[in-house]
User: What shape does this take?
Amino acid sequence: MRISGNQLEALYRRLYAAYGPQYWWPADSPFEMMVGAILTQNTAWTNVEQALQNLKQSKALHVHAIIELADEKLAALIRPSGYFNIKTKRLKNYARWFVDAGCFRTLKCLDDEVLRRHLLSVNGIGPETADTILLYAFERPLFVIDIYARRLFKKLTLISGDEPYATLRLAFASVLADDVPMLQEYHALIVRHGKEKCSGDATCKHCAVEALISV
DNA sequence: ACCCAGGGTCATA
DNA sequence: TATGACCATGGG
Assistant: This one.
């Protein structure tokens, strides 16, 4: 694994030039963002949109509604997002933790690493979900390593792709600027790029981004 | 019909 | 520490 700040900045500029700003995370509130982060685990976002829409229509997209709603009712609402029984438990675990921890008013005052540990203590919140919540709901500076990031950096031969999450996280953290808007945009662009298909002609954005990076 | 998607937990060795 | 099974819908 050999990652340099210059390479990461060059890649960011190339992604931004190709796709422009993505305006992530798509959510009307921080709490909706956190719910979406759990629902999208190993699931296509289009499925999550359906589930979020169901929750909105039932006025259930609120901490207390999640806590009070019967498991069967909640599971039925989030059904389109898949793994609905597991995700029902995870949403409830998270909502209870969030209230017990004092909601945003208290949580936003915690140090980055303390808050991260706290998030990871919730059953159902792993490193990726915790980091997306930290970056987009709590606006903490960090680089999210998801499946798209692994694929892209592997393709660019900057990583092997099977490094543990902690290894990649520390490697990126040591090299990237603590620029929250940039880091939010960076992750969004990587996902956007991952979904983009090759157009087949010379104007292909996908191929332009993946061309060799000269530092 | 098959494959995978904006992961994480738990049991096993 | 490191694999493997499991969870489940919807779109290509």
About this structure: Residues 42-44, 46-47, 50, 79-87 of chain A lie near DNA strand C (CB under 10 Å from a C1'). The domain at 30-136 of chain A is CATH 1.10.340.30 (Endonuclease III; domain 1). The mean pLDDT of chain A is 95. Residues 84-100 of chain A form the longest helix (17 residues).
